[in-house]
Amino acid sequence: MGAALDMAAALQIHAGASTPVHLIDREQVWMPLSGEFEVVMADRTERVMAGQAVILPANAVRRVAAVGGPAQALVAMAAGGRARIPGGEESVPLPWAE
Asked: Measured between alpha carbons, how far is 72 from 37 in angstroms, rounded to an integer?
């Protein structure tokens, strides 16, 4: 039971900012430490805050935004993840996940 998560990093998104729309080739677990996040995947939107978690499946197109102020989360995933923009062919490594 459970995923093989061997990398974790604390990530912060500034108030009113968001990630670009992108996908990552590894499952991620976002566990907010402070603030609130809006997570958009496909046609689904979830809000998560400290004490909650959200699982983002591998290769799911997503965007994560800070809502109402800065937000910080612990993000866990398997090492070696790569990100890319939907429709793009080039992927880039996630420096914190190597």
From this structure: 9
What token pair was written down for 50? 């400290």
Could you count the other beta carbons within 10 Å of the beta carbon of residue 43? 5
Eight-state DSSP code of residue 18: B
pLDDT tens digits, one per residue of 14-46: 999 999 999 999 999 999 999 999 999 988 999
Residue 73, Cβ neighbours under 10 Å: how many? Answer: 26
Please state whether the predicted TM-score (pTM) of the whole model is above 0.85: yes
Asked if residues 34 and 51 have their Cβ atoms less than 8 Å apart, the reply is no
- Answer for the pair 28, 75: CB distance below 8 angstroms, yes or no: yes
Are the C-beta atoms of residues 3 and 69 closer than 8 Å to each other? no
Tell me the pLDDT tens digit for each residue of 70-98.
999 999 999 999 999 999 999 999 888 77
For residue 49, list its beta bridge partners.
36
Q: Of how many residues is the chain composed?
A: 98
